[in-house]
Specification:
mainly alpha, 158 residues
């Protein structure tokens, strides 16, 4: 019984380790420019301000406000990821992995808050996932056959 529990715990730990490794590798993908900026402006997303506040200021993190902002941005970007320039209206495998990674990181952020541990690292990881989603959406909108209209005008037609 003890061996089975140990194997289960090690298997779960290895799953989280490999998921994080794969997602961090996906997030390191470079885009030729910041495609997320028109998406942020068109949808009034807050994650760049959260990222800037966490990186630039050495003040304590406003946990509840930042969590609400990140969760709202995630909901908006996940909707756009499925529907903006995506004919199948489904997540790709890469997108599913990052959605799962976002949820797990958000869950661990809540645990770290309860344990009064550093909250900046998970918040920065969440913002990097949102930035990646914004870049993917912006790239889709930019490369679609809607080149003669702006990203904000395209997103208003959804």
């Amino acid at each position: 019984m003890l061996v089975a529990a140990l194997i289960l715990i090690l298997s779960i730990a290895m799953f989280f380790f490999y998921l994080q490794t794969i997602c961090l590798k996906i997030l390191r993908q470079e885009f030729d420019r910041d495609y997320f900026l028109p998406i942020v402006n068109a949808n009034r997303l807050e994650f760049p301000a959260v990222q800037r506040a966490v990186e630039e200021f050495d003040a304590p993190v406003d946990y509840h406000r930042f969590c609400m902002m990140l969760k709202c941005d995630f909901l908006a970007l996940s909707y756009l990821l499925k529907n903006a320039g995506n004919e199948s209206h489904r997540y790709s495998t890469r997108d599913w992995l990052l959605v799962l990674y976002f949820h797990l990181t958000y869950f661990f952020l809540q645990i770290r808050h309860l344990l009064r541990m550093d909250e900046k690292t998970p918040i920065l990881r969440l913002t990097s996932v949102l930035k990646f989603f914004g870049n993917v959406i912006g790239l889709r909108v930019n490369s679609a056959h809607y080149r003669d209209i702006s990203a904000s005008d395209y997103l208003l037609t959804l």
